[in-house]
Amino acid sequence: MASEILLKCRFSDSGRGFGFAEILDEAGLEEYENNACPTCGSCSGMYTANTMNCLTEALGMALPGNGTIPAVYSSRIELAKHAGMAVMEMLQRLDYFPDVLHAHDWQAALAAIYLKTDYCKRPEYQFIRALFTIHNIEYQGKYDFNILGDVFALPEKYRSIVENDGCINLMKGAIEFADFVTTVSPTYAKEIMTSAYSQGLDSMLR
């Protein structure tokens, strides 16, 4: 017999006590799980990191959707593009052009890619160096080439730079364009330069 899950919710009027909201069977529970946590790494739970992320978004310090778009939604792909371009445009608005642009992991890879493909043609950007840091090489930002131009706004001439294993690989593109590549420790640096741990990127890192 299917187990029953009793959900509770706080009364919205008084803020005191709990009320029974709904009794779920297995099918109902699965529906909630598929919407709240559709895949590994896409939990929408308001835990410490995501609470801070959503607060940053609400305060206008992050792009809309930064903390609220589930990982599996296609709109998160476009968010990566907008974030990369926003970094570049922010430098212009602040009239601040640092010596080094530091991008972390595939989510920020497009900032380094845009710097070296487009913005470097502008005089104020041409001396900025790109530093790319790898925290977890398993997550590389892989996408179909159909969205190279439409979503990522990258010309076809850069296809070979971001291509790996037949698809777009944003981490690979950032590694190729970066002036410097770092990671979290000397041990991890050695590990990801081997085929056993590099997830296919060891030849680029060596």
| Ends apart, CA distance between termini | 57 Å
Number of beta-strand segments: 8
List the quaternary state of the chains. Answer: single chain
* Uncertain stretches of 5 or more adjacent residues: 1-20
Properties at a glance:
206 residues; alpha/beta; three-stranded parallel sheet; three-stranded antiparallel sheet; 8 helices; 8 strands; 17% strand; globular; disordered N terminus
Give an account of the 3D structure:
This protein is an alpha/beta fold. The protein has helices at 26-36, 48-58, 75-94, 109-117, 159-162, 170-177, 186-191, 202-205, and strands at residues 5-10, 18-24, 100-104, 129-134, 142-143, 163-164, 167-169, 180-183. It has a three-stranded parallel sheet with strand order 3-4-8. The protein has a three-stranded antiparallel sheet with strand order 5-7-6. A hairpin with a 2-residue loop joins β6 and β7 (167-169). α3 (75-94) packs across α4 and α4 packs across α6 (170-177). It is globular and about 60 Å long. Residues 1-20 have low confidence and may be disordered.
Concise account of the structure shown:
With 206 residues, the chain is α/β, with parallel strands linked by helices. The chain is built from eight helices and eight strands; from the N terminus they run E-E-H-H-H-E-H-E-E-H-E-E-H-E-H-H. Strands 3-4-8 form a three-stranded parallel β-sheet. Strands 5-7-6 form a three-stranded antiparallel β-sheet.
